[in-house]
Amino acid sequence: MDHDALTQFAEREGTKIAYRVYGSASRDLIIVPGIISHVEYAHKLPGYNEFLDRLSTHFRVVVFDKRGNGLSQKIEDSAPTLEQRMDDIRFVMDAVGSKRATIMGVSEGGSLSTLFAAMYPERTTNLILFGAFAHTPGLEKLKRYPGFIGRFLKRFAMKRAVKSIYKTWGDGSFVRSVVPSRTLINNELRQKFKEFELASTNAADMAKMVSLLGEMDVTAFLKDVRCPTLVMHSHDDKLIPFSYGQALHEGIRGSELIELSDVGHTYFMSKDPRIADEIISFLSDEEPNKNEQNMQGRVLATVMFNDIVGSTRLQVELGDEVWKTKIRKFEQMCKDSIHRFDGIFIKGLGDGVLAVFSGPARAIRCAIEIKEDAKRLDIELRTGLHVGEIEKDTDDISGINVNLASRIQAVATADQVVVSEVLKSLAFGSGLTFEELGDYELKGFDGKWKLSAVR
Fold it and tell me: What would the mean pLDDT of 314-324 be, rounded to a whole number?
């Protein structure tokens, strides 16, 4: 393998993502890194070249730096959101001409990859999770406390983590925490760890990423992963305890769990050839046609319903012909906005529209834009959004989560965009702000549903 492969850049929407390609096999393996990476410096770390050598004879292996890391786009005011980092995967796949690939998510990249597999099943043949987790370890203990106390303790814990980053970043201690327990760390290796940390990012940007990590939780979406999944986790992982890998395995139906020992939180530094062998063996058992058939039409998506306030009254006041013209203008305006925000216009409803999006924050921003633009047509809207698994065919969508989005839209008042709690949880770090509306009983659904309005 050519360890000096050319570093290339996927450039799209003002973002530059650094990537490298190894091998030329017909099947693609995209490795999504953890919270630190550098596609060039990684070759100086023990075991990295050997791992790529082994896999690149079977797959075209693509490695990249997520924005904020290594040679990719640097962080500006805030850390990249989950949605933006999923875009990174798509941008790189598009740049290398990969329509479908096995996605291998490492550490924090595993949470990201899990969500990607659920939202983009048409692009994910298989999912591999190494040292991964659904939510930030340790924070789940705070749920035992009342709301305001739990939130206070969480803020305190994250501030302490950020303070530690500023104090220690660049001394190599973070990388030392991920190595296999039996690794002999000499002066040369210690220096490489320091250099790797600083090559990946600086203390201020690392602190931003750690702060955002505290809000991440993809537990609710594990059930929506339907591709063959391999979970690999080591019992001596000091950064992410084994129980978090076990939880991923239990949450993703039909997944396979490989229990490791003495490899730490890294897939290559142990130089254990069995890790690459297990990946090769797992992927050699795939049945692409069967897998594609099972996943056809099922996708995790954000559903948007909007409704024109007082539509019947307006139709009577304006008359049928003027009303039809206004509705045509409204629907075209909606189609234009939905396209700009990378969504799909499903259909007009006579007095509103139905659309779906792969990006949760994009869906909310689109709803806001449509709401404001509709005022120029003297139309007031009420809008509801929810994220969940839907059935999608050529012309329409269906499923319980489509119905739920419709019920949420019915709760909204004039000029209001209302979202479910699970959708709100995916919009963290996006800059969007919300006002909690409380718990609602939604017709046809059991229990109460926590809803929020977008400010």
Answer: 91
pTM: 0.91
Q: How confident is the model at residue 100 (pLDDT cuts 50, 70, 90)?
A: very high
Amino acid at 294: N
Helix (H, G, I), strand (E, B) or coil at 81: coil
Average pLDDT rounded to a whole number, residues 366-394: 94
Q: How far apart are CA 223 and CA 219, in angstroms?
A: 8
Residue ranges in 96-202 assigned as alpha helix (H): 108-119, 147-168, 173-176, 187-200
Q: How many CA atoms lie within 13 A of 213 on its CB side?
A: 24
| Residue found by looking up tokens 């629907």 in the block | 331
Q: Report the candidate in 253, 340, 235, 254 with the shortest Cα–Cα distance to residue 245.
A: 235
Q: Give the pairing of strands 229-234 and 124-130.
A: parallel
> Where among 267, 295, 323 does a domain terminate?
295
Other CB atoms within a 10 A radius of the CB of residue 148 amount to 8
Structure tokens belonging to residue 365: 């921003």
Q: Which pLDDT tens digit goes with each residue over 241-280?
A: 999 999 999 999 999 999 999 999 999 999 999 999 999 9
| Cα separation, 365 vs 11, whole angstroms | 23
Contact indicator for 12, 94 with CB cutoff of 8 Å: yes
pLDDT at site 286:
57
- The three-point CA angle 309-314-320 to 5° equals 130
The DSSP 8-state label assigned to residue 7 in this structure reads P
> What's the gap between Cα 403 and its chain centre?
24
Who's near 97: CB < 8 A, 6+ residues apart? none
Per the model's pLDDT, the better-predicted residue between 174 and 147 turns out to be 174
- pLDDT number for residue 294: 43
- The per-residue pLDDT for 215 is 83
Residue 398, domain member (yes or no): yes
Q: Cα separation of 71 and 223, whole Å?
A: 34
Query: From CA 352, how far away is CA 307, in angstroms rounded?
Result: 4
Looking at the fold, whether 288 and 141 belong to one and the same domain comes out as: yes
| Structural domain contains residue 1 | no
Token match 């909606």: residue?
A: 334
At 400, list the tokens.
């319980």
Q: Looking up tokens 């690459």, which residue turns up?
A: 276
Q: What is the DSSP string of 261-273?
A: -S-TT-SSTT--H
Q: Which domain holds residue 302?
A: 298-454
CATH number at residue 118: 3.40.50.1820
Which tokens go with 16? 């530059």
Asked whether the predicted pLDDT for residue 356 surpasses 70, the reply is: yes
Domain total for the chain?
Answer: 2
User: Which secondary-structure segment (H or E) carries 298?
Assistant: strand 298-308
Please count the residues of the chain: 455
